[in-house]
Structures are given as structure tokens and as C-alpha cells.
Amino acid sequence: MAHIGKRIAKSREGIDRIKLYAIGEAVKLVKERATAKFDETIEIAMNLGVDPKHADQMVRGVVNLPNGTGRTLRVAVFARGAKADEARAAGADIVGAEDLVQSVQGGTIDFDRCVATPDMMPLVGRLGKVLGPRGLMPNPKVGTVTMDVKGAVAASKGGAVEFRVEKAGIIQGSVGKVSFEEGKLVENIAAFVDAVARAKPAGAKGTYIQRVAISSTMGPGVKVDPSTVATGSSA
Fold this sequence. Notes:
Elements: H1 2-12, H2 23-32, E1 41-48, E2 60-64, E3 75-78, H3 81-89, E4 94-96, H4 98-105, E5 113-116, H5 121-124, H6 128-131, H7 149-158, E6 160-164, E7 170-177, H8 182-198, E8 209-216, E9 222-224
Parallel strand pairs: 3-4, 3-5
Antiparallel strand pairs: 1-7, 1-8, 2-6, 8-9
Helix pairs in contact: 2-8
């Protein structure tokens, strides 16, 4: 444990815990301090001026990262007939109807993202208690309940990241890997922040985007100056 403590202490050297860094500098610091033996994921955390307990302050959506996430997602599709065939052709990992519902009810969840055609939702609805807490429930707002099965599978495989505000007004998500070039990470982070900014709910009061920080899986957090990731809609 002492070794881990020493590594963490070393990784925090040179980072001012109070300073807000420009996005490019923040990415550089995070990349330099990612010293694990695997390709760490870069995570973003955003504190928003919302209280998600109120329906008009809920924030959720999906963003297509321009440079992908760096990981291959396993995608399950609930569909029948021609739509099931379309899903398989598009590269879905698991396709099914009642059989897939039974499998999930039995505790087998061998996928990272879930898509359903609208006609399957009465069936998929039974899985709310299983899929809901894992953030896997298909939802039309984020494009995972759709007749465009091909498009949804392609988006999921290509870098679509869902986001949803948690209790304390925090949104978290993956924006790439440490191995990505700095410029590509900056583009992905800007796309994520922009999508959250555009999802600003009607009930949000005061400053909407309050804090932004990025970190790698094993590394320290670095605070980002939101104005350097600025989008026209992030006020």
C-alpha cells in the first residue's frame, strides 16, 4: 500500500489543486501522469447547477465523440425479423427478443449498450429493475429506442457516449484513452462539454456548468477552466 501511496503522491506533484488549467494544458498534465501498465481511460467530471430531483432540471443525452472512445462496446439489440437481421448485419454482438429478455432476467448481461425497436419496449420494459440501475435501459431520448437499428449500432460502436446527471448534480463520462493524441482528446472533451451544454434543462438556475475536471483511471484529477472548452451555449 505504501508503494501505491508514493505513486499517487508523485503523480500529484506539479499539479496546483486550486488552479483552473486551460484544456490543452490539463490534457497534457493528465497524460504525463498516467503511469499505469495499461492504456488508462480519460474521464471527465462536470458539476452542474441543477438539482436532478426536479423533473425540469434533469440532464441526459448522448454525444458522438469525434475520435471514438478507444474501447469496443458490446451492443445488444432487442428486435425481431428483418430488424434483427439488420442489427446482425450492422455488427451487433447479441440480438434477440423473448430469449434475450429471459437471458437478462436470469442475470446474464454480456453487453455495454442496449438498443431496442419501439415494438419491443413492452417486453424490454420488464427489465427496468435490472437494466435501469446499470444505465443500460433503452431510451428514445438517447437514440437507443429506434427503428434505425443500423444507425444505433454504428453509433454505439463508433463512439456514442450516454450521459446522465447523478444526485449531486454531477455528470461523468469517458472521453478517450491516454494513448490518444492530445488534440484528439481536446476535441472529444469539447464535444462532450458542448453536448452537456446543449442539454441544459429549462429549470436550471444560475451558472449551469460550474466545474469541470479530467483524470485518468489511476491518475489525479486536474481542474479545467470551462471557458477554454467554451461553446456558445455553455453560459
